[in-house]
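Inverse folding, one chain.
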């Protein structure tokens, strides 16, 4: 998803973000069995890439890797698009989770409430639309140490997590649009697809 900047380690360089039409965006990510140095490095590079591009989330597929790995940081957007998180039923400070690295994540909706809100994507530049998603979700994943992280979220964090976990299964936010809504975006999507085919 698209938002603001944070300086990371200078030796970590941002990666190239692939755009709509690139096959990796439709690939099913492989489960990560071992969190080794290559995964730690990739997570750091993805965070750098996300901040560099003013994003609030980035999935491995967006940098051409078919893995169950995503990164999120919703703190820079908190003022305009707040988030809440709960651990074992108790609300926790968002800063204790951010930046968030999700390894092999699974998401479960909590309750029946849904919310319509705007989404964009670093892999589909200049396109935004309103998407209907569960308002509150439970997120279960591993962190970089291999420990299980199990928490609930609302607001932008819930939306960003659902958006990024979709990426890990080859699903894009535009897949939720009606045929009419999608038709309005076709000129831009065709242009991105044509550009992707050039490489």
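Residues assigned per position:
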């Amino acid at each position: 998803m698209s938002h603001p900047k944070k300086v990371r380690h200078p030796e970590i360089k941002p990666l190239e973000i692939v755009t709509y039409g690139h096959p990796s965006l439709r690939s099913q990510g492989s489960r990560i069995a071992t969190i080794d140095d290559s995964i730690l490095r990739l997570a750091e590079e993805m965070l750098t890439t996300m901040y560099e591009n003013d994003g609030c989330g980035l999935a491995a597929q967006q940098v051409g890797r078919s893995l169950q790995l995503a990164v999120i940081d919703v703190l820079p957007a908190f003022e305009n698009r707040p988030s809440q998180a709960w651990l074992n039923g108790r609300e926790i400070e968002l800063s204790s989770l951010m930046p968030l690295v999700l390894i092999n994540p699974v998401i479960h909706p909590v309750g029946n409430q849904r919310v319509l809100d705007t989404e964009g994507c670093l892999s589909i530049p200049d396109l935004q639309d309103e998407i209907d998603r569960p308002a509150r979700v439970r997120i279960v994943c591993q962190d970089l140490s291999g420990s299980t992280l199990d928490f609930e979220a609302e607001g932008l964090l819930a939306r960003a997590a659902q958006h990024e976990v979709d990426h890990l299964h080859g699903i894009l936010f535009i897949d939720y649009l009606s045929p009419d809504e999608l038709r309005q975006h076709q000129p831009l999507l065709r242009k991105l697809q044509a550009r992707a085919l050039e490489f």
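Helices lie at 37-52, 156-167, 179-197. The two ends are 24 Å apart (CA to CA).
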